[in-house]
Specification:
heterodimer, A: 259 residues, B: flat
């Protein structure tokens, strides 16, 4: 942890993510986020640091209220994809032979449809909302994580310390569970963070399309305010900047962890 | 069975194109399987799947929309390539991840909405920026191992300039790795096109699919998914074939 905090990329990543996490924890109640407090599209300043939206609601209060839905949706999708794809990819690549050979075509088949179109297809089966967005984004992340897990297991299998343990007679399960997996920690952490960096904008996009979390989810907030542009551009800019900051922070932290 | 597998392996080794086709086949299979699943599981979708074959106007509208999407993607791809390659080369030959991380973090739909304020024709820029980041990242990843190769060191010692070194020694040797890294690009562009088309009300395949979802028109949505899946598979095949052709041994 101390080594990580000495990395400028990690510090920059944390500086992006910590205010967003604080915003998610301090999210105000629904009544504050929905209260009409000013005239429509009141300019930023004074009591309204981020201005008001087209209904005269405080953009900052709505941004804070929407933070948990957007960030938790992205995190849930990343974790769901990682917990299903990484063990499968790692176990198959560790085993080698036919299971490992089956991984590339499986990943190619799973990523056959571009993510946003797959999500629209899924929208025929599931009602719009956070759960649909989480499932759709997890499905989109799955092939990349399957490949990343397999690559990490293949890398560890070739490591000299694993070869040495094989020589002294350590079994495959013991090798994987006691020696390979603990050494995969930073790489798995980086994969999770990279998945989070993709999942947050993807969840926001589905919100924007009407498939994901409703307003004040950040994607839906952009869709709500976009109809009146160029008036009230701040109501569009603020949630988009939040999404960008979350994705940038997770990417920088992943890069620092990978080094 | 064993002999057949061995013959197939031999054929793939002799013909890289056959190998590319076999690698792209699961993508088509995945599209067909997903659409079949949607048709089978969705309420009232079974008849839509059947009706799809007999509804030429749905296909005609989807094909027109696909043409619009290609008109959006082409300049975005050009811009991403023209700016991403030199950016990636610069990053590969020195330190730097910040710009790529920032460009990859930009939500395309948000950027499209904001750029539409300046001019709706700027929509391709919103699509190009994440593509540009991916191209730059792919270039950087492919270039780094090549920089340590003997022939690059020798050219450097002979006094070959930085720019000439990049284009005559580094890029040719890094081409296969670069094309291999571009695998997510077709999906990124097609998915980004949905966001941009909905954001700026451009009548492409993404907007066509979105409107079909909104109106729960299963036949139109399935047609859009099938066309997008086929285009995606074709693009992946093209990338894979280009990668195979650029490998020194043609593998």
């Amino acid at each position: 942890m101390k080594r990580l905090l000495r990395e400028p990329l990690a510090v920059a990543g944390l500086l992006c993510l910590l205010p967003l996490l604080a915003a998610a924890l301090l999210a105000p109640g629904a009544e504050l986020a929905e209260a009409v407090v000013a005239v429509p599209f009141a300019r930023p300043g004074g009591a309204l640091p981020l201005g008001a939206d087209l209904a005269g609601r405080d953009v900052l209060a709505r941004l804070l209220r929407g933070a948990p839905a957007t960030l938790a949706g992205g995190a849930a999708a990343a974790v769901l994809a990682a917990f299903t794809a990484l063990p499968l990819g790692m176990a198959a690549a560790w085993r080698g032979g036919r299971p490992a050979a089956a991984l590339p075509p499986l990943a190619t088949a799973a990523e056959a449809l571009p993510p946003a179109l797959l999500a629209l297809g899924l929208g025929l089966l599931l009602p719009p909302g956070s759960t649909t967005a989480v499932v759709a984004v997890a499905l989109a992340l799955w092939p990349g994580l399957l490949r990343a897990g397999a690559a990490e297991a293949a890398r560890l299998r070739q490591a000299p310390f694993i070869a040495a343990l094989m020589v002294v007679g350590a079994g495959p399960a013991r090798l994987l569970l006691l020696h390979a997996l603990p050494n995969a920690g930073p790489a798995v952490g980086a994969m999770l963070l990279r998945a989070l960096a993709q999942a947050v904008p993807a969840c926001a996009l589905l919100g924007f399309l009407g498939l994901g979390a409703p307003a004040p989810g950040w994607g839906a907030m952009v869709a709500e305010a976009a109809v009146a542009l160029p008036e009230g551009w701040w109501a569009v800019a603020a949630p988009g900047l939040g999404v960008m900051l979350a994705s940038l922070g997770a990417t920088l932290l992943a890069e620092a962890l990978r080094r | 069975m064993h002999a057949r597998a061995q013959a197939l392996r031999l054929g793939v080794r002799r013909s890289p194109l056959l190998g590319c086709l076999l690698r792209a086949a699961p993508a088509l299979l995945g599209t067909l399987l997903t659409c079949a699943l949607l048709a089978a599981r969705g309420p009232g979708l079974g008849p839509a799947w059947v009706a799809l074959a007999g509804e030429p106007e749905v296909w005609r509208a989807a094909l027109v929309a696909l043409g619009e999407t290609l008109v959006l993607i082409a300049p975005a791809l050009l811009l991403a390539g023209l700016l991403g390659l030199p950016l990636g080369l610069l990053a590969g030959m020195g330190p730097g991840t910040g710009v790529q991380a920032l460009l990859l973090a930009l939500p395309g739909f948000w950027l499209a909405v904001l750029l539409a304020m300046i001019g709706p024709w700027l929509d391709f820029v919103a699509l190009a920026l994440p593509g540009l980041a991916l191209v730059a990242q792919a270039t950087r990843t492919a270039v780094r191992p090549v920089l340590g190769m003997d022939h690059v060191g020798q050219a450097r010692a002979e006094g070959v300039g930085r720019l000439a070194l990049a284009f005559t020694e580094v890029m040719p040797a890094a081409a296969a790795g670069f094309l291999g890294q571009l695998r997510p690009l077709p999906g990124l562009l097609l998915s980004g096109a949905v966001a941009v088309e909905v954001a700026v009300a451009r009548p492409g395949l993404g907007r066509f699919a979105w409107q079909a979802w909104q109106g729960q028109e299963a036949a139109a949505l399935l047609a859009a998914l099938l066309l997008a899946g086929a285009l995606h598979a074709l693009a992946m095949f093209g990338l894979d074939a280009a990668r195979a052709a650029s490998e020194p041994d043609g593998a």
